[in-house]
Every structure is written in C-alpha cells, then in structure tokens.
Design goal:
The complex is a heterodimer of chains A (330) and B (313). Chain A contains ten helices and eleven strands. Chain A is α/β, with parallel strands linked by helices. Chain A folds into two domains: 98 residues, Rossmann fold, CATH 3.40.50.2300; 148 residues, Response regulator (Rossmann fold, 3-Layer(aba) Sandwich). In chain A, helix 5 packs across helix 6. The chains are: A alpha/beta (330), B mainly alpha (313).
C-alpha cells in the first residue's frame, strides 16, 4: 500500500500518544487498595467495608478493586497475586482465614494489611479491626424498648458467635435501661444467609406478641412489613429496604478506621495497630442511623434519652458492657 | 408459651405448610428422577437456577406468573443437561450431579452480579400474596391453615395426587417405574429407557425450578445468596423418608416443615432452656429417627444409579 505523507504523520502522532500514555498513568499512580471478602457483597459487614472504601477511593484518589466470595482455599492465591503486584494496602475479613492471611502478610512486608479479625494485630504489617457495633446496639435496644407497646421485643440472628452475643447483650442492656420489664426474644437461624428462614423466625415472633424486631440478618424486615411490626436494621442503613418498617439501624461504618490506615500507608508509618479502639460511638464508627420516614413514631422522650446516652458514651461518661455470653430468650 | 400452646396455635400450622411447600416440590422432583433410575444431585443447583430465573423474569416483566414459567423452563433445561451427562454419556451420577450443582451455582451468582450489579439494598419484587379460597377458608381451624395460602401452594396440593395418579394409574407412569426398576425389561417390551429417563429428568428439573421459584416469588421477595440453603439436599433425605411414594413424600415434607416451625417457636418462647443449636437440629434429628423406623421395608428403585447401556448384555 502506498503511504502518503499524511499517513506517516498520523502514525507518528499515534505513536507519540501511545508512548505518552504509560508515563501519564505512572504520574497519576495512586495508592492501590484491594478488598478481599469471603462472602458475597450482600453480607452487611462486607457491604459497609465496600461502601467505605469506595468513598475513600473517591476522596483520596485511590485505586480500589475488590474480590468477593473468595473461598478459604483461594485466599492465599488472591492475596499473593496482589502482594506480587506491589499493592500498598489490603483490606478484608480474615475471620475464616486467620492463619492464611497472617502467613501471606509475613512474606510480603511491603504490603500493609488491615483485616477484620478476632485475633488482634500481628507485627509488623498486619493491623486488625473487630467489626463491633455494640455501642450503637445499646442505643438500638433503647429505641426498641421505647417503641414497643406489647413489652416484647425480638432479635433474629444468624450464627451465634461471640461477637453476635456481644452485640445482642448490649442490645438487651439498652432495652432494659429504657424499660426494666421489657422481654427480649431471641431466635437463631443457624446460617448467615437464609432469608426465607429468617422471615419465618420473625413471623413466629409476631405470633408471640413481639412488635419491634432487631434484624441482625436479612429477611426480617420483609416479615415485619407483613405483620405490621417495626424493625431496626443492623450494620448498614436498611431503611431503603422498607422505609415504612425500618425505624433506624445500628450502624457499623468502618470509614474512620480505613481512613486512618490509608493515611498511615501514605505517610509511610503503617503499623500493626489494633483499630478496634476506634470502633465506637466517639469515632463515629458506631451510631444510630437517622429515623428517616418514621421519625414521628418515636416518642420525643425516647429520642432525648437516646441522644443523651449517645453523648455520654462518646464522652466516656458511660461505658457499655461488652459481654460474650449466650443471649437467650427472656 | 408452653409447647402445647405452640402446637395448638393456628400460626404454627400455617408456618409448617409454608416451610414444607418448597421441600415438597423438591421432593416430588427427586421422586420423579429416582423413580426413573437417576439419582439427581443436581437438584440444589436446579432450585437455585429456578429461583434466579423466576426472580429475574418477574423483576423485568413485572409478572410473577411469567417468572414461574421461566423457572420451569430453566429447570427443565438443566434437567436436560443432567440427562446428557448421565443418560447419554452414562457418567457417574454422583459426580455428574454434584458437578451440575456446582456449575449452576457459580453461573447463577455470576449472572446475578452481571444483571443486577452490587448494591447495599438488593432489588426486590412484590411477591405473591396469600389467597383465601372462598368457602373452604371459612372452615374453622383448618380453613385458615390450609386454604389461606399462596397460589403456588394450592398447585402443590394438586400436584401430589396428580403425580400419584400418573405413577400408579397410567401407562406412562408404569413405563417410568419399569425403567427405574429394570430398564432392560422395559426395553424388551418396547419402552425406550433413554427417552424415558431424559423426559423424567426434564420434569424433575422443572419441579426443582418451581421449588426454587416458590422461595423468592412467594416466600420471599428478593433474590439473595443462600436462598436455597441446602433445601435440595434435604429433599434427597425426604424422598427416602417418603419411600418413593407421592403421598408419603408429602407427609415427610410436612413433618420436616412442622418440626422446623415448632423449633423456631420454641426458641422464641423461652420455655425450654437449651443451646439454640439443639433447636436447629430438631427437624434433622426427627427426619433421621423416622427414616430409621419407617424405611426398613421400603426399597429404592432397583436400577437407581445404574446407567443404561442398550448395547450391553
């Protein structure tokens, strides 16, 4: 094919642009942050991590990617691939893979880890958080008791692990503070994801006179709507699922934790920190979501009591007891 | 609330039926497959595929009945895939069935992510509401329990006698049972065992798809991970408990549903102080005990799990 001078010029222009692109990308290179989750994104704990990282990535211009539903057997492979690429920070849940994650972290000192874990941090590069929102659950319990007309409130939980008990016991304590004679009914469905069963458990509670229910798992709100109960969400703000039923949610928002971790990585002073010290009301990792559409249903004195308690907890004037013994029906 | 109060409550029986229906549909599905001589371990995947097909179709078209249709069709197609593996290629039924379940599980979640993306609030549909049947629902006590249910539940009520009639009173049913007992003898009288097994697996797939669709078109209004939660595997036990007979299978599913509804109420009643894991294990323990007592004289279809090769003597 005969080439005109114009073709040659075009080619040259294209070549220049192509050569310039990698340099441009290199200049804009930002901190790479990766999320690894054992469950699907729908798990509320993972949803919250993902939302926080998405927000952080937008604000601080981070390069954020994630991998969900990573089975324990694949954890090491996914982590190592990222570490080999030289990723700066890896965030995720290590509850089911505590040993695996620590083994990988030991081999890649240049990558910082900030993982949900029940075992605490490991030197030098493995920081942890606990995923706890029991302080907010205390307020949630106060709200439930304040809303209940029948004197019976409920909670439908998944698998009972110590953190779940810690959450539910704080919820119960909050409810008892509001109304000393309140009765708490607890049901476990034995699975993290079985919405039809969670729904049936909630209906069973409605049959027994419960009128406010804490939706520790997915599936409760749908039953609450069917049986004219009120619901309180867990971890994420669940009012969008049904604004006519969900009064508020016991929020766990890991944004402050992740922000601190990212800042530490950027400043070159990342350490194996126990970030659970931030997981409280004072640092806004825990809070009760806005009452939204059902604000009128909440009596003013209940609102005031919750607000006062929230301030007391934040100021350190009141400490919510954290207790990991089994929460049973009263 | 004492145990007696729980059992005498209308809400308990209604819950037992709601919990039993998806299991019953799955058990009937497994019954059809096993009566033709194929152990269908693809049932868990088929139920999941039916759940997604039903939900996605209802979400896009706004029609719940189109969702039911889509679940039936996709279920039947996966049944066809299962038939290709175990009837045509004569692969090991256990391995092929588990493979079908794993492959469909992966594909279903991948398609869900592609189609619906990720969001903090899962997309939802308005599920079927219960329809009280005129006159019948006015019968005291059993009316509100049996005849104030979802349309799919009424269909399931009819499916049990229909399947029993088909299996034991029609030539096609006889052909199906013969293929499950002795495919060579069936071939000897002019029945094509391969064709029968393919059709049986497609019917089983459609029924499993319907079972899955019930879970999110009637019982629950959105598609979430864990919507099936091993209910397919339970059906494998229930079909043994039901001794490969439709009415006994209905009884088995009802028993499981009733004990499950009972334990959920027992947990919240607070009248028995035991670790919650024991409550959750109750339906399984009850099933196991009844299987031991009840199935001593029951015989599985003789050719179950045996591939049929027309060229072999």
């Amino acid at each position: 094919m005969h080439k005109t001078r114009r073709d040659v010029l075009k080619l040259a222009a294209f070549g220049t642009v192509a050569a310039a692109v990698p340099f441009g990308a290199a200049r804009a290179a930002s901190v790479r942050i990766r999320g690894i989750f054992e469950t699907p994104m729908e798990e509320p704990f993972v949803t919250q991590l993902h939302l926080a990282m998405t927000r952080l990535a937008k604000e601080a211009d981070l390069d954020y990617k994630y991998s969900e539903s990573v089975k324990a057997a694949d954890f090491s492979r996914v982590l190592r691939q990222w570490c080999e690429e030289g990723v700066e920070l890896i965030v995720g849940d290590a509850y089911g893979t505590e040993q695996i994650c620590r083994r990988v972290a030991r081999n890649y000192g240049k990558t910082a880890f900030t993982m949900g874990s029940a075992m605490g941090p490991t030197e030098p590069n493995f920081a942890t958080f606990y995923g706890q929102n029991y302080e907010a659950a205390y307020l949630g319990g106060m709200l439930a008791a304040g809303l209940s007309k029948s004197g019976k409130i409920g909670v439908v939980a998944g698998i009972a692990v110590p953190t779940t008990y810690g959450l539910l016991n704080a919820y119960r304590a909050g409810a008892k503070e509001m109304k000393a004679d309140i009765q708490l009914k607890a049901a476990y469905i034995g699975s993290m994801f079985d919405p039809p069963k969670a729904k049936e458990a909630t209906i069973a509670m409605a049959d027994q006179g419960v009128d406010v229910v804490f939706a520790e798992r997915i599936g409760v709100i749908e039953a609450a709507a069917e049986r004219q109960m009120l619901a309180i969400g867990n971890m994420t703000d669940q009012s969008a699922i049904n604004p006519k039923v969900v009064v508020s949610s016991v929020i766990w928002d890991p944004y402050p934790v992740l922000k601190e971790a990212v800042d530490a990585v950027k400043g070159g002073k990342f350490a194996a920190t126990d970030y659970s010290k931030l997981e409280n009301i004072a640092h806004r990792v825990n809070y009760l979501a806005d009452y939204a559409a059902l604000a009128d249903k909440v009596p003013a004195e209940v609102k005031a009591a919750i607000e006062a308690k929230s301030n007391d907890i934040a100021a350190g004037k009141f400490a919510v007891t954290y207790e990991e013994s089994e929460t049973k029906t009263d | 609330m004492s145990m007696l109060d729980i059992i005498l409550d209308i809400g308990f029986f209604a819950a037992a039926i709601r919990l039993a229906v998806p299991l019953l549909l799955g058990t009937l599905s497994e019954l059809v497959a096993e009566r033709s001589g194929v152990l269908n371990l693809g049932i868990e995947g088929m139920m999941l595929a039916g759940a997604l097909a039903g939900f996605a179709t209802a979400h896009v078209t706004g029609s719940l009945w189109l969702g039911v249709l889509a679940a039936l069709i996709l279920g039947a197609l996966i049944g066809l895939l299962m038939a290709l593996l175990v009837v045509i290629l004569r692969l090991d039924q256990t391995v092929a069935g588990l493979g079908v379940t794993m492959a469909t599980t992966g594909l279903v979640f991948f398609s869900y992510r592609l189609g619906f993306g990720e969001s903090a609030t899962p997309p939802a549909i308005t599920p079927f509401s219960t329809i009280p049947l005129p006159l019948l629902s006015d019968i005291p006590y059993i009316g509100p329990v049996l005849f104030n249910q979802y349309a799919l539940t009424y269909i399931t009520y009819l499916l049990v006698p229909a399947l029993a009639f088909f299996l034991f009173r029609t030539p096609a049913g006889l052909a199906l049972r013969t293929v499950g007992e002795n495919p060579k003898a069936a071939a000897g009288v002019g029945i094509d065992p391969i064709k029968v097994r393919i059709l049986a697996l497609m019917a089983a797939g459609a029924l499993a798809g319907l079972a899955g669709a019930y879970l999110n078109l009637a019982a629950f209004g959105s598609f979430t991970f864990g919507i099936i939660s091993g209910r397919g595997w339970i059906c494998l036990a229930l079909v043994v408990l039901g001794r490969w007979k439709p009415f006994a299978c209905a009884g088995a599913a009802l028993l499981f549903g009733a004990v499950d509804a009972f334990q959920l109420r027992l947990q919240t009643s607070g009248s028995v102080d035991l670790p919650y894991q024991l409550f959750l294990a109750l339906p399984y323990v009850a099933t196991l005990i009844v299987v031991i007592v009840n199935t001593r004289f029951a015989a599985a279809p003789a050719a179950l799990m045996e591939p049929y090769d027309p060229e072999k003597r």
